[in-house]
């Protein structure tokens, strides 16, 4: 979830006369002449998205959050379609898991690499609209796939276009609210992509218990259609540079005067070059910056464990406790409750952060954001050990569900901590840092379900969960260590601010 924060520019009118000595610093027209300061176009109070009515801003956040929820819910809703798909397409378990879940999550890694540069040129809104129009179109072949090849290819494509909301949408929230008011709407948006994978099995369980498996994707198709309508009718453009450029174009058309210009005019912008940079910079960051690599590995491990649970929970609750498909889907509610509780505690963390910011004169080091991650890492490790030792048939089924709640809370804390840290510490390349993190998380999320069955068969539920708890324990010291040495590592980094 990257947040591409746009500059807030205000002025009393659409043009402002600048001192003549500044003319040498003005950008060039497409014709090559210097811009006349009398015709420079600014963002006025009427144009500023932060001045929209509160209801309109929150409605926009709700639509954006719904898009992120759908994109992530679509990945895990397939968890209970595996058995009927195996029977209908006559394929093995590994190929089924890959086609059902892993390929979609890999698509979520690929799509954002192309989206960032396009959203900064054409605006956020057109990218949202096109992404969900294509998501809707690509969902049809999945729902009516005649064979596994068609099913797999279009699952990948839906993952690619759905991932837009995991990278660009945070920027929209930042565009709409000032720094002192952005925390609550950002918390609502941030919760959505984490809650989506938990709601997926819940919906999928009820559908596959009572209906044909293709209804799983009929639901996704219908939801995506509603999302398209909401995006077309309810969400305004919020990216300031694009708003200003459109305003200048409108003035040129209305007046017939070609002298209107903006500080964002750039005749030499090369979209192909921008996309190329967005493709290789995230991988440079992972290969050359140890701090970015380790923090991204931490979040990737958590997402991998979450997606592994989509294979593990049926083993625990259907195999050990005799749950039906729909009741097994409900067993994920513990993780969801943990995430909601963690989100609800955000105001407490915000007040603590406000005190820290006063101490540092409103310019704290990025390491202060790792404090939330310290709590989250401990909660995740405790939860996995707790799950391990409640995964016995003689232990009441409610125990492992309760044990999963700290995992949800801890994962939320770790994600928000690491995401905020990456954006703050790697500000010059924040979008690339978030793309790198998303790519690594998606690879882990795609890979872990593939070996879940073998691991649980070999180690048993207790041994498998204890192994995951051990891996999580190894990560617990990370935020504590980086809080101490992060400043030194950033000083040596070629990417950090």
TrEMBL record:
Entries under InterPro entries matching the protein: MFS, MFS_dom, MFS_trans_sf
Any one cellular-component term (Gene Ontology): plasma membrane
Cited Gene3D superfamilies: MFS general substrate transporter like domains (1.20.1250.20)
Residue span, Major facilitator superfamily (MFS) profile domain: 60-481
Compartment(s): Membrane
Domain of life the protein comes from: Eukaryota
Biased composition (Polar residues): 1-17
Membrane topology: Multi-pass membrane protein
One GO molecular-function entry: transmembrane transporter activity
Predominant subcellular localization, coarse grouping: membrane
Pfam families associated with the record: MFS_1 (PF07690)
PANTHER family, A to Z: DRUG_PROTON ANTIPORTER YHK8-RELATED, MAJOR FACILITATOR SUPERFAMILY
Annotated protein name in UniProt: Major facilitator superfamily (MFS) profile domain-containing protein
